[in-house]
Amino acid sequence: MLMNSADRPATLFYQANGFRVISPGNHVLCAVSGEVIALEALRYWSVDLQEAYASPDMATRRLLGQG
């Protein structure tokens, strides 16, 4: 059975002003909480760590070593 790219997580390359899709999908997972983040809702990520966050709180927790 073929999977639609909408049914799987995307692989992204995070850059300072955006991200590049490496492997198609419709979401990524928050590196702290594991929460599903739709690509159109993705606003927070780390260029250095190459990971996504569901909220500014989650990004801050990771930055402070709490997640």
Summarize the structure.
The chain has one helix at 56-63; strands spanning 11-15, 18-23, 27-29, 36-38, 44-46, 51-53. With 67 residues, it is mainly β.
List the helices and strands and how they pair.
Layout: E1 11-15, E2 18-23, E3 27-29, E4 36-38, E5 44-46, E6 51-53, H1 56-63
Antiparallel strand pairs: 1-2, 3-4, 5-6
Distinctive features:
67 residues; 34% strand; single chain; 1 helix; two-stranded antiparallel sheet
Biggest sheet record = 2 strands, antiparallel
Instruction: Classify the secondary structure makeup into a structural class.
Output: mainly beta
Query: What is the average of the pLDDT values?
Result: 92
Task: Enumerate the spans where pLDDT stays under 50 for 5 or more consecutive residues.
Answer: none
Strand content: 25-35%
Would you give an account of this structure?
The chain is mostly beta strands. The chain is built from one helix and six strands; from the N terminus they run ββββββα. Helices cover 12% and strands 34% of the residues. The strands form three sheets. The chain has a two-stranded antiparallel ribbon with strand order 1-2. Strands 3-4 form a two-stranded antiparallel ribbon. β1 (11-15) and β2 (18-23) form a beta hairpin. 16% of the residues are buried.
